[in-house]
Specification:
Blueprint: E1 2-9, H1 15-26, E2 38-46, E3 51-58, H2 61-72, E4 81-89
Antiparallel strand pairs: 1-3, 1-4, 2-3
Length: 96
């Protein structure tokens, strides 16, 4: 499995707006174009400083690269500005 980790910073007063917008995208029946192969998505936020991380998981590196292209073309909107994007191979995963 592979993961794309995007960090962002925005206005702390708009965190709920940002969460609502992202939730609408990821919980819809039809994923945004280019994100059909997403295995899992998570969003972490710090309400005090407006910083956050978007974690997107894919089964393959190829799917991750395609998803990265789609995500880079999306407007972060209320999320503020993207400060970094990094890519990782998931070495260990354990769910309870």
């Amino acid at each position: 499995m592979h993961a794309r980790i995007a960090t962002f910073e925005g206005d702390p007063a708009k965190v709920d707006e940002m969460i609502s917008r992202v939730r609408g995208d990821v919980e819809s029946d039809q994923p945004p174009e280019g994100l059909e192969n997403v295995r899992r998505m998570m969003m972490l936020v710090n309400r005090e400083n407006g910083k956050g991380m978007g974690l997107t998981f894919f089964d393959s590196e190829e799917d991750m690269r395609s998803g990265d292209e789609a995500l880079n073309n999306m407007n972060p909107g209320g999320a503020g500005r993207r400060t970094a994007v990094d890519f990782y191979e998931v070495a260990i995963e354990r769910a309870r």
